Amino acid sequence: MDTDALTAGLLQELRAAKPYPALSLTMPTHRRAPDNAQDAVRLRNLLSEADNRLEADPEVTREARTAIRQQLDRAVGELDQRRALDALVLLATADEYQIWRLPRTVPERVVLSDSYLTRNLVAAKAQAQPFWALTVSSDHAALYSGTVDSAQEAHIGGFPLAAPHWDPNPQRVERIGDTPSNFTNEDTRNFLRDVDEKLRAVLATDPRPLYLVGLAPALALFDEVGESAKSAAGRVTKGAPAENAGPGDLLTELRPALEARRERFAAEIDGKLDEARGRKTFAGGLDEVWAAVREGRAGLVAVEEHYQQTVRVDQEHLKPVSGDSADLTDADVREDIVDELVEAALDSGADVVFVADDSLKEHGRVAAELRY
User: Fold this and answer.
1) How far apart are CA 315 and CA 330, in angstroms?
2) Residue 132: beta bridge partners?
3) What DSSP line would sit under 98-164, residue for residue?
4) How far apart are CA 317 and CA 246, in angstroms?
5) Backbone phi and psi for residue 138, each to the nearest 5 degrees, phi listed first
6) CA-CA to 279 of 20 to 30 Å: which in 194, 242, 330, 349?
7) pLDDT tens for residues 133-166?
8) Exposed/middle/buried for 313, CB within 10 Å: 0-12, 13-18, 19+?
């Protein structure tokens, strides 16, 4: 699965307690050759480590060990190297397995616990900046789930929708010699009201920025009859009728709108952090922001997109260590502390945003606006 599949409900299921052991395996991967040639070897090594861990753990029964091995074998058999992104996460219990492909790198690790490791999934989804795109015409509407890298049609909430076939009024044709425009027909208005109602339900369940794509008359009528269009982050009104666009074409059409929103958003975040410094409700650097998040004081956390840091936890403070000198067997050493911070911040109700690399360089790559 890709990160846009990580809904609040699914995250709750992943975090739920499971019969021990729930196994989480994470590793960085490569999108293209020749670098991706090493991925299969690294995966075999990690699977061997997982097997050794299961064998050596006295709490793992022979039946559970055999069942988890079988689930991992099934997962590996399903993997498609052509779909690799920047990281792979395999989750397995005796009863199931899940494959997650992430657009954000992760450390190599095998974890046995009573629930799945979710911090890397949560951070990857936050960084991916998921959005909804609605393509709409007078008689068809499709919803797409997108990130900065990809878009795919979403079959949820009743989408895609097609309007019932309607025939022009023969009396009108006989009287004035033409057929009414689709965009002045009451059936079209009712259809777009239905689209709006279903779209609002999706947005209530999974709020994301919304982009609208379609011919100008369709978008104008959708604005007129519905509510969801009012909060749209952007719209594309050029090109062929919307239903003719594939996911790749759609993402290309959306690029200018996505980039425009990104620039507006970056300026907005800069303004909020500047105001926080003036009010002395600002935290900068990993250690300060980590403390604020743990205390529930962070209202907004901004992280550079590719910031990763290995640290040692020393008396509740974080001390950066280099990857070469870090003893990864030490329980106080945390390779994925940035992902852990992102997950903790979101759990505390903070907003988490990813900003361009080096934009927070003077503040230690991560900063926060504090609630108090």
Assistant:
1) 15
2) 145, 210
3) EEEEESS----EEEEESS---HHHHHHHHHH--EEEEEE-SSEEEEEEE-SS-EEE---TT-SEEPP
4) 49
5) -70, -20
6) 349
7) 999 999 999 999 998 888 999 999 999 999 987 5
8) middle
